[in-house]
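Example record

The entry below shows one chain as it appears in the dataset: sequence first, then structure tokens.
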Amino acid sequence: MDLEFFILNGYGLYVWPAFIFAFLSCFYLYIKTKKEFLKQEKIFLNKFKELQTTRIKVIKKETAKKVLSTNFI
């Protein structure tokens, strides 16, 4: 394995800590956002336990044919 890749021509001392900082910052924001999302989801589900649903009645075929066959022009 070539260690020169990790040294990055002497700049590895600055690059790797920057990568680690960026990764940890993104990971922290992900965890914090996920935690807040779960909290808000729990609040939402407590407020709206049952979603309102409306039932649609099925129209008989004969009635539909009558309505469609009339011409008002």
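Notes for this example: Helices lie at 4-7, 12-47, 61-69. The CA atoms of residues 60 and 66 lie 10 Å apart.
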